[in-house]
DNA sequence: ACATTACGGTTGTATTTACAACAGAAAGAA
DNA sequence: TTCTTTCTGTTGTAAATACAACCGTAATGT
């Protein structure tokens, strides 16, 4: 486990905690290390979870099969990222997704209850972990709500207007750059790229916006 | 503030904490009570927030204006519900929404930092607040991800398949009831009611599903 | 019993989208 | 340079959606 402290150190969860402190806290946080071969399941649909998990080596896919067996990949987990934090509440019920190793992978499980209830012994930085975890999940929450706000619009144009307005607010200016290229933006908003490109040009021709690559300006 | 302890007691935040303990913890949590007249702003777009807020009387709307001034109401806050938890991380930036009182309202602000860093003095149940808050936001997170999973599907049929599959998994049966009527389900999935109704009937005619009111069965 | 309202299903049309295919520009590699 | 790849815009068509309007039924209240 000690081999991975340099990875943990760079995660959101352990931000601001030194090597020695992480090392000292591992047992206090109920840390357990597991290895998975390519293709093996880290978590299965139907299981119950009370841990937050950090990927320290390899790569994972979060995927879901619907009732009729159609599989869709919801996302991927990169080294240093955590997952499982949305299922730790007692009322959250069974997992609805599978998590599968797409390469040989190594993860560390942390017992949520041990994270939340700060111990009295030794863990000088335990409060930081609680804070980091809370801020991380709070931040994720905010981003999800924002994205949902765009996606709940019916037409591509409305989605674009919602997204661009928000980006303008965030950057506090009517001109700004976005962190996506066209394909990525289309994926983010769940629309077809060419249709979106078409709509962007219409909006430009109507004098609503101007753009060049990922630079945008609202009028 | 003491007048509202019976309200706080029934919130997710203070679940499991007794009247006396809540009363004792208020100052420790940096609680501040504010009143707003109908139409006044509780929070404004552009402000920074480091508090979690509980509505103890009245009603609030969370709303957003886009760059061109089109207003949309994103949700409403009922008595006993908390809000603001998505904006408390230092990196979350300025608020992108307004929160407006639709009736004369009373809210209590709690300092997030005081919630997270459990104090040593007197607050026997402080750890419970941290846990409650964490589970609440984690739960919200899970629901958002699920909803986003449905909404990211392109067609009404795919959205329905995604939603019904998940409901089937949750209730662990191929037949189940859903907590929505048609209009509510359409709103939840952000589609047109009549188009959705049409699609449901097509799916029924194709032998994929059967339903009666809010009872569904998958084949 | 009657009127009213809420809900679910159906249909037609105009609008919008997805999808595929293609072309030009820009960036990068050989 | 030249070739290749990536990115973006454009167009046409088939498919899906939104919207409005209408009907029948069930539930509710007077």
What report would you give on this structure?
Chain A has two domains: 2-143, Jelly Rolls (Sandwich), CATH 2.60.120; 153-218, Winged helix-like DNA-binding domain superfamily/Winged helix DNA-binding domain (Arc Repressor Mutant, subunit A, Orthogonal Bundle). Helices cover 36% and strands 24% of the residues of chain A. The first copy, chain A, has seven helices and eleven strands. Chain A is globular, with a radius of gyration of 21 Å. The termini of chain A are far apart. At the A-B interface, helix 4 and helix 5 of A face helix 4 and helix 5 of B.
CATH fold annotation of the largest domain in chain A:
Jelly Rolls
Most extensive interface, residues per chain?
Answer: A-B, 58 and 58 residues
What order do the SSEs of chain A take from the amino end to the carboxyl end, as H and E?
A: HHEEEEEEEEHHHEHHEE
Write down the overall geometry of chain A: globular
The helical percent of chain A reads 25-40%
User: How many strands appear in the DSSP assignment of chain A?
Assistant: 11
- Quaternary structure type: homodimer
- Strand order, sheet with most strands of chain A: 1-8-3-6
Largest sheet of chain A: 4 strands, antiparallel
Relevant CATH superfamily of the largest domain in chain A: Jelly Rolls
Can you tell me the CATH architecture of the largest domain in chain A? Sandwich
| Number of structurally distinct domains of chain A | 2
